[in-house]
Every structure is written in structure tokens, then in C-alpha cells.
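Ops channel
N.P.: pipeline sanity check, posting one input/output pair.
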């Protein structure tokens, strides 16, 4: 079992990026979270349980791409479409489709109290704001957010 500890930030200005990975993902269950992901031509099945604080328990398994495609057709809500860029420890997700316009950066930590230097292009921290979870974006995509939700962070 893996433990995931991450912080999530909005992006003020998109830095220079290249070489991103195309990701399509959906959710078979929300409690626990069961996610199916197709990244390039690789399938993954992930199960996540909330733990204390920022921690989440995570089990992740590779599955055949054909199975991932079939499972994506059985997912609840809209599918998440995004391109992910890696900038050192930062994963930068540029959303597409129903979530176009949303750009979020995630930083995986080794402990909840780890101190990190943030680049100037990162904006407000949104860790803990439920609407920014991918599992919530499938239920209520960014295109359905009010102007206040989008800009009055």
C-alpha cells in the first residue's frame, strides 16, 4: 500500500512546458475512490482511501489498455481529459473537454510538514477544497462553475 501526501495549487501563468502525457480518466466508485486511467497507451486502476490530514492510502495496478478503455465506458459522470506535464516534483494538469480552462499543479510531499519552495507561477493553494478533486470534476465539471467559483478563489 502506498501513502499519497500532496498539495494542490491553481496556476497563475502557464510556464514553458513540452512533452506532456495525454490522460483520460473516470471513476467507477467514489467511496472508496476507484479510478480508471488511460495514459498514452497504458491502463491503470487505482483505489484510494482517505486517511488523516493530507494523507490518502493508494493502491495502483497496471491493467491492459483494452480493459481500461472498456472500463472508461462504464464510469460515472463525465470523463476527465487532461494533459499532464512534469516540472521537477510538480505535476501540472491542463484540463480539456468539460473542464477546459482549469489548470492545477500538484506537488507530492514526503511528509505533511515538508517545506517547499514554490515557483512564482503558482497561485492560490486549493488543497482541501473538494471541488478541485478530479473525482468531483466528473460530477460537476469546471464549465458549470459560477464566475465566483472560478475567479473568487
Amino acid at each position: 500500500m502506498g501513502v499519497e501526501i500532496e498539495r494542490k495549487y491553481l496556476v497563475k501563468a502557464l510556464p514553458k512546458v513540452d512533452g506532456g502525457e495525454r490522460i483520460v480518466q473516470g471513476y467507477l466508485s467514489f467511496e472508496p475512490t476507484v479510478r480508471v486511467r488511460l495514459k498514452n497507451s497504458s491502463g491503470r486502476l487505482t483505489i484510494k482511501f482517505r486517511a488523516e490530514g493530507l494523507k490518502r492510502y493508494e493502491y495502483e495496478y497496471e491493467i491492459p489498455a483494452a480493459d481500461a478503455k472498456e472500463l472508461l465506458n462504464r464510469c460515472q459522470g463525465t470523463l476527465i481529459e487532461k494533459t499532464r506535464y512534469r516540472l521537477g516534483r510538480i505535476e501540472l494538469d491542463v484540463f480539456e473537454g468539460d473542464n477546459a480552462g482549469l489548470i492545477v499543479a500538484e506537488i507530492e510531499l514526503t511528509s505533511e510538514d515538508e517545506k517547499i519552495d514554490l515557483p512564482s507561477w503558482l497561485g492560490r493553494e486549493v488543497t482541501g477544497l473538494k471541488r478541485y478533486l478530479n473525482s468531483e470534476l466528473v460530477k460537476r465539471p469546471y464549465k458549470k462553475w459560477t464566475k465566483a467559483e472560478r475567479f473568487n478563489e
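N.P.: looks fine end to end. The first strand starts at residue 2 and ends at 11.
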